[in-house]
Amino acid sequence: MSVPAIQRRPLMALAAALVLSAPGFALAQAKLKVAAIYTVPFEQQWVSRIHKALKAAEARGEIEYKASENVTNADYERVMREYATAGNQLIVGEAFAVETAARKVAKDFPKTSFLLGSSGKPQAPNFSVFDNYIQEPAYLTGMVAGGMTKTNQIGMVGGFPIPEVNRLMNAFMAGAKEVNPKVTFTVSFINSWFDPPKAKEAAFAMIDKGADVLYAERFGVSDAAKEKGKLAIGNVINTQAQYPDTVVASALWHMEPSIDLAIKKVKEGKFTAEDFGPYSMMKHKGSEMAPLGTFEKKVPADIVAKVKAKEADILAGKFTVKVDDGQPKSSQ
Hints:
Blueprint: H1 5-20, H2 25-29, E1 32-37, H3 45-59, E2 63-68, H4 73-85, E3 90-94, H5 99-108, E4 113-117, E5 127-130, H6 135-148, E6 153-158, H7 163-179, E7 184-189, H8 196-208, E8 213-216, H9 221-228, E9 231-236, E10 247-253, H10 256-267, E11 287-289, H11 301-315
Parallel strand pairs: 1-2, 1-3, 3-4, 4-5, 6-7, 6-8, 8-9, 9-10
Antiparallel strand pairs: 10-11
């Protein structure tokens, strides 16, 4: 016997009320509150990758996302505390210059999850670290650079000589040396994370000394290469669309695997102190060498073949790119 419609409505309302009151329903339905703190602008390469991954999660409706850019080191702790006090369940950022302060905040908010770029180790129970472990595609782009230089001189401009930068430069240099043992390097650090004019001037000086391929670890280097008719290798993001005749290849960082995993763990109540760095590696789709695009027909076929073979060996676990955090030196 069917229940009259007028009687079904209260039954349906009761069922809905029972579901809504079920344990965990509110947690599952509520968007996770996530905040991020960056010491540089959103468009800076490194930060842009984290911001992009979080914006994607926001667009999917998984999180409620707030972020602060250009936060000074002196102000970082205050902003962290404000976000934690406001009830954000996951706080993301970079702690390289504010390690002590950031870890202190994490201790004061043990129920809040923290995921910060750091050269240090995870701190129990709630402070996880990550890094751009993209030395594998950096090695591959080095192979491309070694095959493209005509003068056998490569210029390299970095921000600060910290492990996160050093390992990428060293991997790049090793890749270039593999295909071209004659290549030499001029290495310079501008001691800034975002100073395009200074990076550009450093690149000009290298070009004047004979460099015809430049490693653009910082913004500004590709501009110098473009102006002087030289080539550049990108880092972290792909800027070939802006420099179609200049940027040959780029080592791309994808922060999505790390961010998505952190969000999932916080939602499940399983977030602990761990190192998310490995999720930036190629096997986790956390990094890759960008397609050659406009340079597809300009890179020598034998170099392309060597790069593809090396990429396959990396993914198969047959070749491991050495992680060398030591400061790279000029070789001329």
